[in-house]
Amino acid sequence: MFKVIQRSVGPASLSLLTFRVYASPKKDSPHKTSVKVNELSLYSVPEGQSKYVEEPRTPLEESISHLRRYCEPYTSWCQEMYSQTKPRMQSLVQWGLGSYEYLQNAPPGFFPRLGVIGFAGIVGLLLARGSKIKKLVYPPGFMGLAASLYYPQQAIVFVQVSGEKLYDWGLRGYIVVEDLWKNFQKPGNVKNSPGNK
């Protein structure tokens, strides 16, 4: 182990030492005069001032520039819409992947229940012939009724939450109608009708 350390320390320590090297000219070579730095071709300064001259644009470059200026609002709008919709799309993809995994490992009896709920929706659609309001009410109502038979706890929670929301909406509507009715009943708001002239 001592030999390894000695061999590795030796060359490394020599690299830290500094030496002076003296060179002597050969006796056979003729004596030359030294060359100044500004006389070297590498350091020569061009005479006169250089000036930047812009090349004229070709018709192709002009048309590309015009096309870029024309498309700039549309590309910025597309980038903005992309930045807004990207998080939504990512959440949608995550929801789809979660649903796919759930359907791959579905609990026993899930698919027959799903079939009964879907069949109830089709029956509601068939019974709702003739009226647009029936087409909006019957299929979701029949599907909700079938789903509440299979999932009673979730149905109770859904009815409670939706009942509270419907009550809030009804209360807000009642307040708005009451305010409109009071404003209409004030004597200053009666407009001149043709019979009052």
TrEMBL record:
Keyword Ion transport in record: no
Compartment(s): Mitochondrion inner membrane; Mitochondrion membrane
Subunit: Component of the mitochondrial contact site and cristae organizing system (MICOS) complex.
Keyword set, alphabetical order: Membrane, Mitochondrion, Mitochondrion inner membrane, Transmembrane, Transmembrane helix
Family: Belongs to the apolipoprotein O/MICOS complex subunit Mic27 family.
Keyword Mitochondrion attached: yes
Protein task: Component of the MICOS complex, a large protein complex of the mitochondrial inner membrane that plays crucial roles in the maintenance of crista junctions, inner membrane architecture, and formation of contact sites to the outer membrane.
Organism: Callorhinus ursinus (Northern fur seal)
Identification of the protein by name: MICOS complex subunit
